[in-house]
Design brief:
six-stranded antiparallel beta barrel; mainly beta; about 30% strand
Length: about 325
């Protein structure tokens, strides 16, 4: 299946892409506030990447304090990463050229303090960005359509630590309830954010936690009870098992994978964090984590991955 990005019902041709015959089939053998370390080089965590700025003298004296992981993302082909528009915005446009030149996508990274290796002896990939595209309908006020795609300058070298995510087919209003439970309790979120909203120290190892995804219909019903807080387009609500487990700063773009038909599917990416509004996990009602549903954007992803220059963007 070389040269394909694979969805449930469709495969996208990508020139020279290196995709394996399977995605998401291996069982779980866990930076999410209150979460646990991910397991090294195991599904469903192998699509997770770190988006990291390597500070240098171009930024001046105020920025000479080391490297910063700003977001997570998901491998969708050997040259494309899916993440949130919140993550992409600082890297987008001519004015962001210096920051973009110092940004790398780290693939196959387990411990940020070390260079990690796969079972084939190859190290993690640290790859420059070739292009950044943000969904054309992204709204930075409401965070509607909070999704973006990066094209990498060189290709990912797949191994057991670096594998692409399984993506579902395009979801429309007619198929929005197809095979999607009102509450999906098979899901896990994983990302690379801060240990605590009060602590600038990031965990060296990505964190994971179980999360329940509400369907779009249930999410909309809840949103109608709070008309002053409009629901961001393209999102659903995620609830963790404990209010003390939250998405925090720099978890944006992290993966939300759910188990179905003996595979792990990339259901969403983390759109917003809730750690700053949760009052230490005791807020009432518990603030939601908004998750961008990837299947709402399959057609857009396909267009961008086939030809990044033709990608409908801001």
């Amino acid at each position: 299946m070389n040269g394909l990005i694979c969805f449930v019902a469709v495969c996208i041709g990508i020139a020279n892409a290196q995709l394996p015959d399977r995605c998401g089939e291996e069982a779980v053998s866990g930076r999410i506030l209150g979460g646990q370390n991910v397991l090294r080089c195991t599904w469903p965590y192998t699509p997770l990447v770190s988006i990291r700025i390597y500070y240098n003298s171009n930024f001046g004296n105020d920025f000479n304090f080391g490297n910063l992981t700003i977001c997570g993302g998901a491998i969708i082909s050997d040259q494309h990463i899916l993440t949130s528009a919140v993550c992409a915005a600082p890297l987008y446009g001519l004015s962001a050229a210096i920051v973009r030149q110092s940004t790398r996508v780290v693939v196959g990274d387990f411990d940020a303090r070390l260079t990690d290796f796969g079972n084939d002896g190859r190290p993690e990939d640290v790859i420059e960005l070739e292009d950044v595209k943000i969904h054309r309908d992204y709204d930075n006020i409401t965070t509607s359509n909070n999704i973006a795609i990066f094209k990498l300058r060189t290709r990912i070298q797949y191994n057991n630590c670096k594998q692409p995510a399984c993506l579902e087919a395009q979801r429309t209003s007619a198929t929005s309830t197809c095979d999607i439970p009102e509450v999906d309790d098979t899901c896990i979120m994983a990302s690379v954010g801060l240990k605590s909203p009060n602590d600038a120290e990031a965990s060296n190892i990505p964190q994971q936690a179980p999360i329940k995804l509400l369907s779009r219909q249930v999410t909309e019903a809840i949103a109608r009870q709070a008309p002053n807080n409009p629901l961001p387009a393209g999102t659903v609500i995620g609830r963790t098992e404990s209010p003390s487990v939250q998405a925090c700063l720099f978890d944006w773009g992290g993966i939300v994978v759910c188990r179905r038909s003996n595979k792990w599917w990339l259901r969403g990416i983390i759109s917003t964090n809730n750690c700053l509004v949760s009052n230490g996990g005791v807020a009432t009602p518990e603030p939601p984590i908004f998750i961008t549903e990837v299947a709402n954007y399959k057609d857009w992803i396909q267009t961008c991955a086939e030809n990044i220059s033709a990608c409908p963007t801001l």
